[in-house]
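Re: [ENG-882] Designed sequences occasionally contain unexpected residues at chain ends

Forwarding the minimal case from QA. Structure tokens:
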């Protein structure tokens, strides 16, 4: 093989640690960002939360579109300035001691200017949002999150009832184990044999003994409130609730009511798809009873709770804190187009700054010799803190820019509601702001906007368009809202079919096929016409 030298020019994209962090922070939700900030506060001594006002650093929305200079671009790909300082410090300090420079492969490179001077970048960033407090001793200041945490769980509710039962230690332990094995809906998903095998391993005798105790405990669990808890499937859950109504000692049902409950019990023993389809004819044949009684029993079953543990689910999971607030900009004159003001929610913006005391100490103590490596590591931590503050600020600035562009494009929605939503795709916002579509996608995922019509994810304002008779386009979001409006005004005795909904949309000038109507209706979680019909 002949050897030779050749020169080749190629281009490649290098993601610096700063850029990687910026991309990661951009796609985080508010909760994930809060966890990231807490982790950085624990790991980096130069980063702190502050209550004081300080000048905003010059790295925000006005600077976001400024072209990067050639010098700054070279700085991004320059060798670690901390290692360079370690070499120079060792040369000017104790010359008789050998200094080992910090190489770029030791830690991620947080390239900076190599200084420890306090610059505007080290100032606090954020608005007048308060730092997090536990609010446990403030009575009136307790927020919704603290109230959610105080809600009793399903397991606690059941354990409290179990204390009133006079059980042996073995049965009490078995009952506690089953209670802790319930899912959030109150169902016992795992078979008793699997639960026993998980405790006893391959000891068949012990497994059989545990299954016996679990069977006894399961009967006790079924007697607790809420009715239906501990069921293995939906049919059993409904039957448990019906038996509780039938065996109510305080309010014994009348003979007619008891007959209806008994019929409903037999119906719940049948395959659930018969009830889902409201197959009255088949249910009459299998369970007895007249057509009218069967319809009445179906209505009774529909009023039962299919998820007994639903009301005990921690409501904190459903709390959505908006990242952006859209507020009316003053009073609007009659006939004038309303104006809206877009602002970041100060409650989700962390107020961070570089710890000036630590930074001053590092600036005044330029260690040499043996201290040069430690000094280099601390300086790298300082630069990491600066970049974290800048990336946090850039994240919120990008969210604000995208949100402002969305509000500008969807002014009709903020005035008239979802029926006035316009078609909008990610590329339109990306082209307007000079960003990539992937960036817009990251910004609009798990970020929320509070509007006069409620709080919505930013992705909600994007939707494809459907053709109209006038040659324009109608937003798929507006079409969904129109379908929902048609269905809400329909007759319960004669609900609208998908074909009828398609014809009604055509009367409004919107071309929408029956299959598309069915897809939108299913997306709205609206049952088909056969299931919406009143019995």
């Amino acid at each position: 093989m002949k050897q030779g030298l050749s020169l080749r020019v190629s281009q490649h994209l290098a993601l610096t640690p700063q850029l990687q962090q910026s991309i990661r922070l951009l796609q985080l939700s508010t909760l994930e960002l809060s966890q990231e900030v807490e982790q950085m506060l624990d790991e980096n001594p130069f980063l702190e939360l502050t209550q004081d006002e300080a000048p905003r650093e010059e790295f925000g929305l006005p600077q976001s579109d400024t072209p990067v200079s050639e010098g700054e671009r070279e700085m991004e790909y320059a060798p670690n300035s901390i290692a360079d300082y370690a070499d120079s410090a060792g040369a000017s300090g104790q010359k008789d001691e050998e200094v080992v420079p910090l190489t770029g492969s030791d830690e991620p490179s947080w390239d900076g200017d190599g200084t420890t001077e306090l610059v505007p970048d080290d100032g606090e960033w954020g608005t007048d949002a308060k730092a997090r407090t536990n609010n446990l001793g403030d009575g009136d200041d307790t927020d919704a999150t603290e109230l959610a945490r105080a809600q009793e769980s399903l397991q606690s509710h059941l354990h409290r009832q179990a204390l009133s039962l006079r059980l042996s230690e073995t049965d009490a332990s078995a009952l506690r184990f089953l209670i802790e094995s319930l899912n959030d809906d109150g169902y016992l998903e795992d078979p008793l044999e699997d639960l026993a095998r998980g405790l006893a391993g391959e000891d068949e005798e012990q497994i059989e003994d545990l299954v016996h105790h679990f069977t006894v405990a399961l009967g006790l669990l079924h007697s607790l409130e809420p009715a239906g808890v501990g069921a293995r499937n939906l049919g059993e859950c409904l039957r448990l609730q019906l038996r509780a109504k039938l065996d109510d000692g305080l309010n014994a049902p009348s003979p007619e009511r008891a007959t209806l409950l008994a019929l409903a019990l037999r119906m719940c023993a049948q395959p659930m798809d018969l009830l889902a389809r409201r197959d009255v004819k088949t249910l009459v044949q299998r369970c007895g009873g007249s057509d009218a009684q069967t319809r009445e029993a179906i209505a009774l079953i529909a009023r039962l709770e299919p998820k007994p543990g639903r009301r005990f689910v921690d409501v904190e999971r459903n709390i959505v804190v908006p990242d952006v607030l859209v507020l009316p900009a003053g009073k609007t004159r009659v006939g004038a187009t309303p104006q809206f003001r877009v602002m970041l929610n100060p409650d989700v913006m962390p107020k961070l700054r570089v710890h000036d005391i630590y930074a001053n100490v590092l600036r005044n103590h330029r260690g040499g010799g043996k201290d040069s490596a430690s000094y280099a590591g601390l300086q790298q931590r300082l630069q990491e803190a600066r970049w974290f503050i800048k990336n946090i600020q850039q994240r919120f600035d990008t969210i604000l820019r995208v949100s402002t562009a969305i509000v500008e494009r969807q002014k009709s929605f903020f005035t008239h509601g979802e029926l006035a939503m316009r078609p909008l795709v990610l590329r339109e916002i990306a082209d307007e702001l000079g960003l990539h579509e992937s960036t817009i996608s990251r910004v609009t995922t798990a970020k929320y906007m509070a509007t006069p019509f409620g709080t919505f994810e930013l992705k909600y304002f994007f939707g494809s368009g459907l053709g109209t008779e006038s040659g324009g386009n109608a937003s798929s979001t507006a079409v969904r809202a129109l379908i929902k409006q048609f269905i809400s005004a329909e007759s319960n005795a004669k609900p609208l079919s998908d074909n009828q909904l398609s014809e009604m949309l055509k009367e409004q000038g919107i071309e929408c096929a029956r299959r598309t109507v069915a897809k939108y209706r299913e997306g709205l979680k609206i049952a088909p016409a056969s299931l919406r019909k009143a019995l």
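QA comment: On inspection the terminal residues look reasonable. Confidence is low (pLDDT under 50) at residues 53-106, 111-142. Proposing we downgrade this to a documentation issue.
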